[in-house]
Amino acid sequence: MSQVYDRVALIGLGLIASSMFWAIKRAGLAGEVTGYARSEATRDTARRIGLCDRVCDTAKEAVEGADLVVLCVPVGAMEAVAQEIAPVLKPGATVTDVGSVKRHVIQVVSPHIPKGVHFIPAHPLAGTEHSGPESGFAELFDNRWSLLVPVEGSDPHAIARLRALWEGMGANVDEMDADHHDLVLAVTSHAPHLIAYTMVGVADDLRRVTDSEVIKYSAAGFRDFTRIAASDPTMWRDVFLTNKDATLEILGRFTEELFALQRAIRTGDGEHLFDYFTRTRAIRRGIIDAGQDTDAPDFGRGKANP
Amino acid sequence: MSQVYDRVALIGLGLIASSMFWAIKRAGLAGEVTGYARSEATRDTARRIGLCDRVCDTAKEAVEGADLVVLCVPVGAMEAVAQEIAPVLKPGATVTDVGSVKRHVIQVVSPHIPKGVHFIPAHPLAGTEHSGPESGFAELFDNRWSLLVPVEGSDPHAIARLRALWEGMGANVDEMDADHHDLVLAVTSHAPHLIAYTMVGVADDLRRVTDSEVIKYSAAGFRDFTRIAASDPTMWRDVFLTNKDATLEILGRFTEELFALQRAIRTGDGEHLFDYFTRTRAIRRGIIDAGQDTDAPDFGRGKANP
């Protein structure tokens, strides 16, 4: 793989940025990668573990001279960072981000992007329930999708270059409109996360009654929900606040379906339940066929403990 | 490990029964294991893959002379099977089951158990999203919990023997009251399954609009729901119909919490969301500390594709 950018700046050093750094290094995609994090503790950790070729004490310092600037902060912090770095952005440089919501990021970041700088929002659909600078690894994006969400009038060459970077990091790349992205992600990610958070919260209330039984017997299905509900609270707060409409729309449909199934349980309508559960089973098959999961049974143990 | 029973009969040859057979063989816990399945195709498969020492064409034939009879059929089929085998049960034998609901099974099976035969309901908290005679493996119960739910007046020696079998198959064993079992399982398993089925159903509706996008981008959180929602439709229909009250109670609490979080999103109450998500994260830590999952990140790939 050949070099795509001379210098890349990663602003925010959490799971995604640290994985990007190791993936960029794995494939030799950039000459130098600079990094900045707001917290001094994070910068110290980054320096200790060799995360980034150069860790800077200000965002401006990290951004100066960069051909690509990647905003890897929570969605709610994007605007302040964009405003701060705007004066030092190099003409012809590209600014991108990795936020889980796209319409909101475009609305708050675009106004700060100077003329002559390209802004190409993006969203890698990859993650784990861990966060922070030590949680990243080079393989995170392998065979995962990264969505580019170009704004009107984006430069095709700048888009092609960013696509080459993501492909070099192992990802499949698609382009998508911002509103459509936010709706699809509300279904595949945002609503499922809120539902998992909710179910775990309900169990937590019950746990106070039944001591540790909910944890002890979690392998029966609940455990998968706790993994999802262990994701970073700041990131997810921002996602729900900034993708409000699509998330609430999907949750409305979810509640409607849930009420229909509850009524089937209450009235003893086994046929309705059986048909519903048969239909959902087929979707699983589609996901395996699409290469987004394996057919190996999940033994209820996770990969490190087969 | 020494032999616990001379002869064990497995009635129903799906995921749990086939895993029991391989686990019993691994540890030499029984002299002979007979098996019966209602479907001829299942019996043929069992004979082909060496599942059970002897596959019988009737439940009665499998049960005759057995010291332990394990009912491994869906909860809704338990009564008919109990009625069928009752006349041939050996005096002093133990009948147990592996159903996910216990109060209902006790209600419908107990009346058919002859005097002099022990009935000790049980429920191993283990499974995968696969079903059928070929889905079993000896390690399924290792370090998982199996709950014994003795009915009033159960013989302590018969309980101790069944406990020894489950421990010999690798499980940890606890005893629990039937109603308490059904409530705890409604939280850790039944409600999460219904919620996962619902979310996948909602996505399926949307998939008709957006083609394959929901499947393509499923790795963002939705994929874990599809795994849960791929579980056996017959088994789960029966679970919901027979653990109706506890499931509906937990779903009621779930809906209440969900509405509170939806309101927080609608009103932009970030503090409420952040606090809620921080609390649920702590539960994940408890599950890892309890040895019911590992801290290894789920790369979104499943164990067979690291």
From TrEMBL, chains A, B:
Keywords annotated in UniProt: Amino-acid biosynthesis, Aromatic amino acid biosynthesis, NAD, Oxidoreductase, Tyrosine biosynthesis
Example GO biological process: tyrosine biosynthetic process
Residue ranges of every copy of the Prephenate/arogenate dehydrogenase domain listed in the record: 6-295
Biochemical pathway: Amino-acid biosynthesis; L-tyrosine biosynthesis; (4-hydroxyphenyl)pyruvate from prephenate (NAD(+) route): step 1/1
InterPro entries: 6-PGluconate_DH-like_C_sf, NAD(P)-bd_dom_sf, PDH_C, PDH_N, Preph/Arog_dehydrog, Prephen_DH
Pfam families, A to Z: PDH_C, PDH_N
Entry EC no(s): 1.3.1.12
GO molecular function: NAD+ binding; prephenate dehydrogenase (NAD+) activity; prephenate dehydrogenase (NADP+) activity
Catalytic activity of the protein: prephenate + NAD(+) = 3-(4-hydroxyphenyl)pyruvate + CO2 + NADH
Keyword Oxidoreductase attributed: yes
Protein family (similarity comment): Belongs to the prephenate/arogenate dehydrogenase family.
Protein's UniProt name: prephenate dehydrogenase
This protein's encoding gene: tyrC
